[in-house]
Design a protein that fits this description.
Keywords: Membrane, Transmembrane, Transmembrane helix. This protein has 327 residues and is of the alpha+beta class. It contains seven helices and 14 strands.
C-alpha cells in the first residue's frame, strides 16, 4: 500500500513524494547525547535506529540533529540506509554531519549558515562579560520546499546550537538565533519558515534564544501544541522547532513519542522527539483533487481487502474430511 501511494505521489510531482499530498508531517529527533558514554553498544544503537525507522512512514521531513562522533553518525546512517527508506532523500553538509535531514520533498537552494557569527549581541540577556567572539554556524543549513496552491513558499532549516549553561554558551545561542532572523528578513515576503534542531539550552532556563526568535516573528512549537507533555520534576520540554509565518494559523502540533533518559543514554535530561501534523489549506482545484484522491485510495484499499477475503484462502484438499482406513 505504501508503495502504491508513493507511486501516485511521484507521478503527481516528482519533487513532492508525500504519501498524503494534503498533509505535511515534520518529525524531529533530538539526538544530543546519542553518541555518549555507551556509543560502543551497538545493540542499544540498533534499538534507537529501529524506533526512528518505525516512525518514518508518517514523516515527510525528519530532522536528526545532535550526533557529534563520525563513527556513530556513519553507523546510524548506514543502518537507516539498509532499511531502504522509500521516497526519502538525505540532506546534510558535506563537511559537517552534526545535522541531517531526510525528506520526501525535494529541498532546493541548500545554503549553509555563515561561519562568522559574532557574539554577544546588542542588548544580550546572558550576562556575558568576556571578550567578543566568533562562532562557526556553518554546520547548520536551510533550503526551500514547494507545496501546492495556496500554501506559501516555505523555507526549512535544521540547526545545532551549542549546549551548556555558561554565559558564553548563552551568548552564542543568542547570536545564532539572530542569524536565523537575518535569513527571515532577507527572504521573500509571505513565506513560511520551519526551523528544527537541537537548540541546546539549559532545560530549566531556555529563554536566551526564545527571546530573539520570538522577537522576529517565530513561535515555539511548545506554544502551539494542543496537548502539552507531562513535566517530570524540573525537566521540561526542550524546544525542537520554531515556526514563522502563516503556517502558525493552520498547524497542529503533537508530541508523538517520549523517550526516557535511560534509553537516550548520555543525555542529562529528557528529550521529546516531536512531530508536526499540518493539514494544509487548499484552493478549490486542490479540494476537488483531494476528494478524487481520497476516493481512489479508498477504492484501492477496499479492493485489496476484498481480494484478501475471497481469494487468498488456502484451497481445501479433496477428501480432507475422510478418515483413512487402517490396515
Amino acid at each position: 500500500m505504501i508503495g502504491l501511494l508513493l507511486a501516485i505521489a511521484t507521478a503527481l510531482d516528482p519533487n513532492d513524494r508525500r504519501l498524503d499530498p494534503f498533509q505535511f508531517n515534520y518529525c524531529v529527533w533530538n539526538l544530543f547525547g546519542f553518541d555518549g558514554r555507551n556509543s560502543s553498544n551497538t545493540t542499544e544503537m540498533d534499538n534507537i535506529v529501529d524506533t526512528i525507522y518505525s516512525s518514518l512512514s508518517t514523516c515527510d521531513i525528519i530532522s536528526l540533529p545532535g550526533i557529534y562522533e563520525k563513527a556513530t553518525y556513519d553507523y546510524v546512517m548506514n543502518k537507516l540506509t539498509e532499511k531502504k527508506m522509500q521516497g526519502l532523500q538525505r540532506y546534510c553538509p558535506e563537511d559537517n554531519t552534526n545535522v541531517t535531514v531526510y525528506s520526501r520533498l525535494t529541498i532546493s537552494n541548500i545554503t549553509k549558515f555563515t561561519s562568522q557569527v559574532a557574539y554577544p549581541i546588542h542588548n544580550s540577556t546572558c550576562n556575558y562579560t568576556g571578550e567578543p567572539g566568533i562562532f562557526d554556524f556553518s554546520g547548520s543549513f536551510y533550503g526551500n520546499v514547494k507545496f501546492h496552491d495556496p500554501v506559501n513558499d516555505t523555507i526549512v532549516a535544521t540547526v545545532l546550537f551549542p549546549r551548556g549553561t555558561t554565559p558564553d554558551k548563552c551568548a552564542q545561542r543568542e547570536a545564532l538565533a539572530t542569524e536565523i532572523c537575518r535569513v527571515v528578513r532577507e527572504s521573500p515576503a509571505n513565506h513560511d519558515f520551519f526551523v528544527s534542531g537541537a537548540f541546546g539550552a539549559d532545560f530549566n532556563d531556555n529563554i536566551d534564544y526564545n527571546v530573539v526568535l520570538e522577537g522576529c516573528g517565530f513561535k515555539a512549537g511548545s506554544k502551539i501544541m494542543k496537548k502539552k507533555p507531562i513535566s517530570i520534576g524540573k525537566k521540561h520540554l526542550n524546544e525542537n522547532f520554531y515556526v514563522f509565518g502563516g503556517a502558525q494559523k493552520w498547524m497542529d502540533v503533537f508530541v508523538t513519542f517520549e523517550q526516557k533518559e535511560q534509553i537516550y543514554y548520555g543525555q542529562d535530561n529528557i528529550s521529546y522527539p516531536v512531530s508536526l501534523y499540518v493539514h494544509q489549506p487548499l484552493s478549490k482545484r486542490w479540494k476537488k483533487f483531494e476528494i478524487i484522491y481520497s476516493t481512489v485510495i479508498l477504492i484501492a484499499a477496499a479492493s485489496f481487502f476484498t481480494w484478501l477475503l475471497f481469494y487468498s484462502r488456502v484451497k481445501e484438499s479433496d477428501g480432507y474430511d475422510k478418515i483413512p482406513e487402517g490396515k
